[in-house]
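Hello,

Our lab assistant flagged a job as stuck in the queue for most of the afternoon. It eventually completed. Since we weren't sure the result was trustworthy after the delay, we are filing this so someone can double-check. Below is the sequence as submitted and the structure that was eventually returned. Let us know if re-running is recommended.
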Amino acid sequence: MSTPAKPARSGGASAIGWVLTIGLNVVAPIVTYDTLTEGHGWSEFSALLLSSAWPVLDTAIMAAWRRKIDEFAVVTLVFLVITAVVSLVGAHTARALLVKDSSVTGLFGLLCLGTLLAPRPLMFYFGRKFATDGTPESTAWWNGMWQFEGFRSTMRTMTLVWGVAYVAEALVRIVLAYALPTRTMVTLSPLMIYGVLGALGAWTAWFGKRRAAEGARRRAETEAAAATA
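-- returned structure --
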């Protein structure tokens, strides 16, 4: 069975989708949180709760525009809700806040691992968000790739690696939160978060290209053998 060709990306739709995704899921929540906590004296919980309104807005816009719910925005919203809930639990010391921050990434890792038991793992939906422009044609192409065993294996492997990496990262940061001075961890913690994210992003791109090249080579060998026969 031949792999369907990837449809051409719609430049305009892709650009608008990326602006909305980054702006409403990343930039707006961070700016809102920092502004409310540092400039207006809001509590962390209240600021996080209000910040979570931006992914809700993004979900509503995408649902109205493309007539479907965008899984990326939903996961981002769940992440912010988890963060808000975790911030309410237990003590509110500086070290406790560092531990809570670590537990959020750990919960995301567990979420990744948990979706391995679902019909499709979490990285399938993340991949669809970043590999397509959200048009019906590109979405249908991505969904159609699930019929191939190699593609399914790739998505599950990526999800497994992300899950294990974030659970391990959370455990290490929790241990360091008790082993190192709080001032040191305030600087080290975000470096670890973005360092792990960057490493996972680079590995995912490399692994995806490697698996795609392997699939293309196997198809070429199969076609060559069929032609010879």
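-- support follow-up --
The delay was a queue issue, not a problem with the job. The result is valid. DSSP finds nine helices and no strands in the chain. Residues 56 and 94 are 30 Å apart (CA to CA).
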